[in-house]
Design goal:
Length: 422
Amino acid sequence: MSEIYIKRLTAPEYHNKNWLHSSAGGYNNCIRITSDGECIPNCVGYAWGRWRELLGYNHKLSRSNAEDWYWNNDGYQRGASPRLGAVMCWKKGVVGYGGDGAGHVAVVESIGTNGEITVSASDYGSSRFYIRKYHPPYTNSEPGLDFMGFIYPPIDFIDHKVVKPMCNLTIYRGEDRNETAEIVRNATNKYKYVNVSGKSIIDGLSSTFLARKYNASIIFDYSIEKKDALFQVGGDIDYNSNIKILTGDDRYLTNFEVLKHALGDEKRILVISGAQYIDGISAAATGLPILLVEDFVHFYQLDFLSRKKGLEFIIVGSIDVVNSIVAKQLAEIGKVMRIEGRNRYETSAEVAKYFFPNTSKITLVDNEVDGLVASQLEDGPILIVNNNNLEYSKEYLKNKNITKAVVVGGLSDYIANEVISK
């Protein structure tokens, strides 16, 4: 099966989970390089993360020295000719003996008709990211290193095709989550804000209704001056001001404080898993209040909500995400319905179908952090997409005339244009 190859010709944004160590909340288990968990600058950490980005799952490439990769028993095919996404491997001296050098790895991003290849890579102790070109034969491509060959990805990638999008993209993208949040803040002209910790995205999700109600933006703790804050939601933020603080001992109690403060006469409530909350990102585009639940609804939540009349609970996610016990508990105090899909991408499209059946505007993201920031745009549904899961969003957009498409964060422009192609 072939898939469109999305080139990476720019550096990964900071704290992208593909290049963030697992101990810091990322996917990467190569050597942790920086104090905040980055696995780059380092060629091994970069190449491992690039495959994680391309494949969408944790693969079997080595995490040891670069020169050990080519002979590692990982089950992937090898060869002397480049392919898109292949890992290019070099050794230094004797393989397995780090005392004479550790070798190098890079990832093939493009292949010219004359055999020239463009690779992306990183260097330990120096370049976080760089692009370099090599010409065949590749035997002397890196001075002082011996070229070994290419490790081929388990997907047959093909170069991108020309697409005809329904409209031009509006792009809000910064170097990291904080800069992206500020760009969105400026675009919406919402100069008051709700401040949440960059360490707790789930508290930010609880804040989306609060921000919408007070016409404010959600900003991560250390990104802008504190004087414009209306609320602080959650902990891990040091403040010496008199803003309203809504926080609890855990995510559920923090969410409860937000609900108590902001719910008012609102009748519809989104029910989101506090453990698997990615489905809530798409639902946050509605601006409705959110109830975070575990495998059951806490007594304090039920006691508060039972005093409200005419409530309608909209569970977002399958029964594996928000179970039947929760549904039964809520059915005793209000109406209950469920919106679900087989994965986050289909659930995202199902949320859009229900709440935005006739939209001409959409917002596209590929992760929960950017989705959280995007919830303040009020530009139609938030669709979560990646290169391997476009079909759900494209089906939803069939027969729609999209006049505005917004990309927030690191989603590839090419993927976004593919989603809105005719």
